[in-house]
Amino acid sequence: MSLTVVHADMGAATIPFEQPPAPPCENDSRVRVGSRFEYVIQALIFVSLLGLGLETLPDIDPTTEFLCSVIEIVTVGFFTIEYAVRLMNAKNKLGFVFSFYGLIDLAAFLPFFITLGSFHMAPMRMFRILRILSGLKLLRYSSCLRYLLDAFRQVRDELLMFLVVTLLIIFVSSVAIYHLEHEAQPETFKSIFHCMWWAVATLTTVGYGDMYPITVAGKIFTGFVTILGVGTIAVPSGLIASALTKTKKERADGSSPESGNDGELMAA
Questions:
Q1: Domain count within the chain
Q2: Is-above-0.90 flag for pTM?
Q3: Residue 220 covered by a domain
Q4: Mean pLDDT in order along the chain per 10 residues (268 residues)
Q5: Tell me, what CATH number does 167's domain have?
Q6: Got the DSSP string for 84-125?
């Protein structure tokens, strides 16, 4: 802005000056309210997951059942309010609705309203399992979890390629062990698809022991698959660890801004 001063002898002169900034009290207050609301949401996420677990207790008493209902109603109410506020404050509302966090926020309360009044129907009970997705809301509030999510984004192509290769190895191993063990154990290694369980348990080096080879060729092949399985754990772990290091460095340098249309709790 500028100020024009008229002088009798010198004529008009323009003097530039800056408008003083607005007092920060209002903005600070809005930030504090938003932060407190976020802490409440984080606490309610854990409470919601606790209620989900309490519902599965055998011979649950009426008091505990009522407590679970109260927990669900309260948490769903807060999650709904949070979603509405973020949607109203989002610059790109449609982008927020279909963003990762937008879909997670929606899944945190939508099953409750869809299954309202039909809880005892088996398909509806299965749909309410989606409530567990509310735990993913913690990604929004934890910087460590956001680092992990960003790291996955950086190496998603490599991980996808590795997943395809791993699935191919599982299928080839299943075919091989079927032909090596089917004649000796027809009831255990019934088909290639039955052998896929053995391939997954062996390739991940878990080895439950419910399916194991008894032929010499089958044992030798199993040893080879077990050694190969070490790589199935090491390769993705190395990729993610490298991406985490890179993400943390970029965040420290300020060259990796937050991605996505997240919506804000308090409008500026």
A1: 2
A2: no
A3: yes
A4: 50 50 55 72 84 82 86 88 88 88 84 69 57 69 74 86 91 94 92 93 85 92 90 84 82 60 55
A5: 1.10.287.70
A6: HHHHHH-SSHHHHHTSHHHHHHHHHHHHHHHSTT-TTSHHHH
